[in-house]
Write a structure and sequence with these properties.
Blueprint lengths: L2 H13 L8 H13 L2 H7 L1 E3 L5 H9 L5 E3 L6 H11 L7 E4 L12 H6 L3 H17 L4 E2 L23 H16 L12 E5 L18 H8 L1 H8 L4 E4 L3 E2 L2 E2 L4 H11 L5 E3 L8 H4 L5 H11 L4 E2 L3 H11 L5 H17 L19 H14 L1 E5 L10 E5 L25 H4 L9 E4 L14 H10 L2 E7 L20 H9 L5 E7 L14 E6 L5 H9 L78 E8 L3 E2 L4 E10 L5 E11 L10 E10 L4 E9 L5 E2 L5 E2 L3 E8 L6 E7 L1
Parallel strand pairs: 1-2, 1-10, 2-3, 3-4, 5-6, 6-9, 12-13, 12-14, 14-15, 15-16, 18-26
Antiparallel strand pairs: 7-8, 11-16, 17-19, 19-22, 20-21, 20-25, 23-24, 25-26
The protein binds 1-deoxynojirimycin.
Amino acid sequence: MKKGLFVICVAALLATGCKSTGNTEEERFIEDLLGKMTLEEKIGQMNQLCFDQPLDSIKAKIRAGEIGSMLNIDPKLIDEIQKTAVEESRLGIPLIIGRDIIHGYKTVLPIPLGLAASFDPQVVEAGTHMAATEAREEGITWTFAPMLDISRDARWGRIAESLGEDPYLSGELGAAMVRGFQGEHLSDSDAIAACVKHFVGYGAAEGGRDYNSTYIPETLLRNVYLEPFQKAIEAGAATLMTSFNDNDGIPASGNDFLLRTVLRDEWKFDGFVVSDWCSMSEMMSHGFAADRKDVARISANAGVDMEMVSQTYIEHLPQLVAENKVPMEVIDNAVRNILRIKYRLGLFENPYAKPGKTSTIYCDEHLQTARRAAVESAILLKNDGVLPLKEGQTLAIVGPMADAPHDQLGTWSFDGDKNRTVTPLRALQTDEYNQVKYIYEPGLDYSRDTDTSDFERVKSAVRRADVAVVFVGEEAILSGEAHSLSNIYLIGAQSELLKAVKSTGKPVVMVVIAGRPLTIERDLPYADAVLYNFHPGTMGGLAIMDLLYGRENPSGKLPVTFVREVGQIPMYYNHNNTGRPAQNEITPLEDIPLEAPQTSLGNTSFYLDSGKDPLFVFGYGLSYSTFEYADLNLSSNEVSATDTLTVTATVKNTSVVDGTEVAQLYVRDLVGSIDRPVKELKGFQRLFIKAGDSQTVTFKLPVSALAFYGRDLKKKVESGQFDIWIGPNSAEGLKGSFTVK
Ligand code: NOJ
C-alpha cells in the first residue's frame, strides 16, 4: 500500500474513535486486504445470515463474497461452508461463525443468573472457558454472550440470561466471562470471541414485557446500565450487539450517540458492532425508519458494522454510497473492525474447526466444572434444621422438576443433550448416592400441570418416608427471550402440591429449579427448608444432592431482589431514598382501623398490602455454617479523591461446620448533585472459614470508585459524607462512615 494512503486510513480510523492497537502487522494486513476489496465485497463482510436458504444458494453467496458471517448453523456444516469462503471466494476471507453459547455449549452450566449467585469470578471464568473450548473444537469462533442487561424486573423472561440487578456484580462477572470465552489469545484452540449485549437498556423494558420501550435518562444510563459494558470492554470483549429496544424514542441500532460517542470515542472500542436479529429492519416497526433503504442508512451511519439477518446493507449500501448518503469511510471502518477480529481469531491462518486428539465435550473435567458452578450457584433461603439430610433417612422425591432433564438446562441450551443431564432423580441412581432409600412420586408431570389426581398417592408416599423433598419451579420455556410473565407465582398446581405434602406432617424440603426469582412467600409456610436453583444445567442434580446431604455447604447469594408480590416490581436494593422513605413500623392492612383518618398511616413510600420490604434482599443467602461480623475498621475517616481506603472486618465462623461466606462491601454517598442510591455494592469476597475460625476480610476501596455522573454529566467523586458497610447481604452489616475532602 502507498504510504500516503496508509496515513489517510489510520487517520480515518482515529477519526471515528477506533483505537490504533500499535500492532502494525495487524493493521498493515487489514489495510492491505481492504485495498484489494471491491465495494460489494466490503458490504458482504457486513452481512450476517442464518441458515434459512438451501445450502447451494448460501454457498453461491459466500463464493460471491456476499456474506461475512453465519450464525446458529448446524455445527456439522461449519467446515464445509468455511471451505467455500476460504477456497472459492475471490479473496478467501474466512467467515466468523457465531452461535448462542450462553451458558455452556454441550456441557451446560447454570443459567447466567445462577452463575451470578456464586459471586465467584473464578468459577464464572472457568465455566465460560469450558464452553469456549468445546465450541472452538467444532469450528465456532464467536458467541453472543455475555448478556449484561441490568435486570430489575422478574417478569422479564430474559432475567434468566442476566447477571442480575447490580452494575458492579454484573461488571465483575461480565469481565470474567469475557476472559473465560476469549482465553489468553483469541487465536488459541480454546478461545472464541465474546459479544457483550444488548447495548443498551434492554432489561428496563416497561412492564417487564420483552422488546418493550425503555426510558432511561443519561445519568441512570451511565451510572447503572453502561457500567457492566464498559468493564467487559476494558476486559477486551471483541464484539458488541445492539439491543431491540428504543430508549427515549431512539432504537438502539440507530443510536449514534451510544455507538460512536460512548463506545468508540469515550471507550476506544476497537472490535465490531453487530445488530440483534432484524433489530435494524425493525426500526420500521418502531416508526424510526421509513423503508429498508432508510434502515441501512441510519444504522451504517450510527455505527452498526454488521447486520444480523435482515440484509438491508447488502441491498442498499451500494446505492447509498453512490448517493453519498453513507460515506465510504463509514464502510471502510466497519470492515476494518470486522477484519480486525477475524485476524485476531487467527482465521486467516487457521479457519477450520480445531479438534484436539480427544474431544473435550462432556469430558470429566468439564462435568466437574459444571458441577462446581451448580454447587456455588444454589442459594439456601430457609432452613429450620431439616437440612442437611441425614444418611439413612428415606426420602419421598416429589414434584415435576425432580426429573426434568430438558427443563433443568434452562433457556438457550440449543446444544446440551438432555440425555446427559443428571437430574436430582438420576443423581440418586449414581454410585455416589445409590445407597439413599427413596420413593419417587412426582404428583405433577410438568410445572404448568394442574391435574391434582395423583396427590393422594403423593401423600401416601410421603407418609412412608422420613422427609419429603419437593422439586418445583419452571420449565425452560417459561423464561428467556420473548417469555415474559405477568404473574410469577409457582405455576400450575405446584403450590397445592406443596400444601398436600406438608399436610402429612413430615418435614418438607422445597427445592426450586427456575429461570427467575419467583414470588414464593405464600409457599414458605409449607416448607421447612428452601434451596433455590436457577436452572442449574447438566450436573444440577448431583450438585443439589451434594448440598442437601451437606457434602457441600451452600454459599450462593442472591444476585436479584426477591419480591413478595409481583406488584412490588420494580424493587431493587440500590434505589434512591425518596423524600419520604417508609418507616420501619408499617400498619398491616388488616389492622387499619375503619374510617382511619387520611394521614394516620404516615404518608411514606410503601404498599398498604405488601409493605416496603422484599421477601429476600439482594446478597442474601444462608449456609450450614453461621457467621458473625465484628471490628469494622477504616484506614482513615477522611480521605481525598486520590486515596485508597482500606476497610477491614473480622468474620467468624461460629458453627461446627466449615463454610464459605461472601462478604460484601456497600457504600452510600449521603448528599450528591443528584440523589444517590441508598446502598451500592463496591466489593465482595468469598471467604472459606473453618469451623470456629475467624478471618479478617480486607477491601481496598479506591476513592475514585465512588465517582458517578452527576448533574453536569461529568464523572467525578463529589466531596462529602459517606456511609460504609461490610456485611452478609445488602440489608445487614457493620456500619462506618468517612468523609471525602
Ligand atoms: C436474538 C437475541 O436477542 C440475541 O440475544 C441472540 O444472540 C440473537 N437472537 C441470535 O440468536
